[in-house]
Design a protein that fits this description.
The protein has one domain. The chain is mainly α and 102 residues long. It is built from four helices and no strands. The radius of gyration is 15 Å and the shape is globular.
C-alpha cells in the first residue's frame, strides 16, 4: 500500500526469523498508519499467517477470525480497542452457500 507507514521500512521488522520473538517495533509503526484497517482486513481475508499486518500478530488475527465466525460483536469491540473501525460483514463470510438438493 502506497500510503502505508511501513513503506520504506525494512521488511525484516515485520517478519521476524523463525523462533525469534516479535519486539513490538512493527506494531508501533502500524499505530501511526493511515491504512492500518485496510491492511488488517487484507490479512484476515487472505488468512495471512506470517508477520505483522495492521498492527496485529498472527495469534491476534487468529482470535479475530474466530470471533468473526462466532461472535461478530466481540470481534468488532476488539477492533475498536485496536483503534480500527468495526467490520460487520467480513468478505470470507459472504461466500454464497450452495442450495440443497431436493
Amino acid at each position: 500500500m502506497e500510503e502505508g507507514a511501513c513503506r520504506g521500512v525494512d521488511p525484516a521488522l515485520f517478519f521476524p526469523e523463525r523462533g525469534e520473538a516479535h519486539n513490538g517495533e512493527a506494531v508501533k509503526v502500524c499505530s501511526r498508519c493511515v491504512v492500518k484497517a485496510e491492511c488488517l482486513d487484507w490479512a484476515l481475508d487472505n488468512r495471512e499467517r506470517w508477520g505483522v499486518w495492521g498492527g496485529t500478530t498472527e495469534p491476534v488475527r487468529r482470535l479475530l477470525r474466530r470471533w468473526e465466525l462466532t461472535d461478530v460483536g466481540r470481534a468488532d469491540r476488539y477492533r475498536v480497542q485496536l483503534g480500527l473501525p468495526a467490520r460487520r460483514s467480513p468478505a470470507h463470510l459472504s461466500v454464497r452457500r450452495p442450495r440443497r438438493w431436493e
